[in-house]
Structure prediction request, 230 residues.
Amino acid sequence: MLELDGISAGYGTGLVLQDLSLTVDRGEVLGIMGRNGVGKSTLLKTLMGLLKVRSGRLTFSGHDLTNAPSYRVAAAGVGYVPQGREVFPDFTIRQNLIMGNLKARNDDIDAAMDLFPVLRERARATGGSLSGGQQQQLAIARALIGRPALLVLDEPSEGIQPSIVREIGTTLKQVSAEKGMTIMLVEQNMDMITQCCDRVVFLEGGRIATSVPAAQLLESPALLNKYMAF
Prediction:
């Protein structure tokens, strides 16, 4: 499904990712964890064509997306929910959803709102009037309206109350199970990780340090201390 082979990328003249290799299977929900600054968000930005690949190869469903522009990555079937949500504050919920797919039909928009009932309840509200958790739900629904084969999320639980975190986790797991969608999320929230992920990789020094089943994390405090403690 997704293959990253020896990827190096970074900012300016510095490298953050260094010879990183990763395979993600179709329908898998993969969590990406690690300390701040190890390259988690850099990995997602490189995948989305927002950062240049210095070396290595990136393929998705047989298509070479190495250094492909963002619009081509999206057209290949990759949806992205960035850190910070980036909803349109002056657009209504419905207008925000349309921006996820300008060719969306009314039933597509209705299906997206059905994922999170609050979006239907507040359909005429503007993005800027929503709480942080509601904005995150809107950003996820907007990404899903394009029917991606792969959904990529950067810290979807950040700054959100636990009840909404659980609702988002439930929805992600449901979408993956029902539609066979592959999901990658950078996340620090253990509840979110164990609720919806099948597998977790830990980054260290710009590379994949280890890969474990998500269910194993609760039984492995030493693993968390090794890769998450400061």
